[in-house]
Amino acid sequence: MKWLLLLSSSLYLFGGFRRPFLIAGLAAELAYLALRAQELGRLPLVGPHDTLVFFSASIALMALPFLFAAPLRQSDRFNWLTGFTAALFALLALPFRSFNMPLPPILDIFWFELHVALAFFAYALFAIGALLGGLFLSRNERPLLDLQYRAALVGYTFFSASMVSGGIWGYYAWGTYWLWTPKELWTSILWLFYALYLHIRLKGPQWERAVAWGGIVGFGVTLFTYLGVSMLMKSSHSF
What we know:
Subcellular location: Membrane
Oligomer: single chain
Number of helices: 8
Number of domains: 2
Transmembrane segments: 51-71, 78-96, 116-137, 149-171, 177-198, 210-233
Keywords: Cytochrome c-type biogenesis, Membrane, Transmembrane, Transmembrane helix
Structural class: mainly alpha
Domain Cytochrome c assembly protein: 59-234
Pfam families: Cytochrom_C_asm
């Protein structure tokens, strides 16, 4: 089935030239996830392989409304950046072995799946916000900054809902809504960072470049929260 990931990555990269290729790449990746879900009998959300694929598909999926927004309708650069980012994480998934074992009881629960899916939707929107911030810095077009803010705001909403569902999952799994693990600590840092970012946007035009850079830095914090903590620190949330 991994040939579908290679196909989707190729289509994503061609998406910079023709938008239908980007959509076709998403369709191929969603087909891969559907086959994995059918094989496992659950959403593929455990392990670096499945989470990287889910992250890649989330980026392409969440980018769709932005592809047709007025400031980006004719922007091949945004198409290419989106396709490259989605392809990058899909290709990063290939070296990792897929996790096919039955889930332990603490993960085999609806709140866990909801928590993880919402988190990756938020991560994807933070990634799109970073791309839009980079475009704003190179082109200095105010509508791009407005779109970046919208991406961050919706992502922040998804991430807040993910934290709530994660607390409920934690209660069922460990009998408490919160454990001070490295993952939860960095989750809090990420949430507070974007809360600050959304408020800086209200400071006025003189803060526009700072806001654009904030979205880029925020995605760096996002990647460390997702990958850095799991790879460098011991945590009950490691993948």
